[in-house]
């Protein structure tokens, strides 16, 4: 059994407060849960109003499957959430 984790940092252009940041991050995390059935959370930069570090995790039997699935998730998010800039990402498999 393997665990795959995708971490990615985002820049929120339209955010001018923590409240507006949360209103942009919450739909993204909810979308991840509903569409891909993964665990997702904001893990860092909690007090920054224009950036966030997010992560999602999956469990599977094959490393290759986890890596391709997490890459597909990242590509989908970039295409679906046009008002958020995705700055960097990292996939780790254990």
Total E-strand runs:
4
Percent of residues in helical segments?
25-40%
What order do the strands of the largest sheet run in, or round the barrel if closed?
Answer: 2-3-1-4
CATH domain topology = Alpha-Beta Plaits
- Uncertain runs with pLDDT below 50, 5 residues or more? none
Secondary-structure element order, as H and E? EHEEHE
The CATH superfamily label reads: TT1725-like
**Distance between the first and last residues' Cα:** 9 Å
Instruction: Please state the structural category.
Output: alpha+beta
**Percentage beta strand:** 35-45%
- Name of the CATH architecture: 2-Layer Sandwich
CATH class: Alpha Beta
Mind explaining what this structure looks like?
By secondary structure, the chain is an alpha+beta fold. It has a single domain (2-93), classed as TT1725-like (Alpha-Beta Plaits, 2-Layer Sandwich). It has helices spanning 18-36, 63-80, and strands spanning 2-12, 39-44, 51-60, 84-93. 16% of the residues are buried. The mean pLDDT is 94.
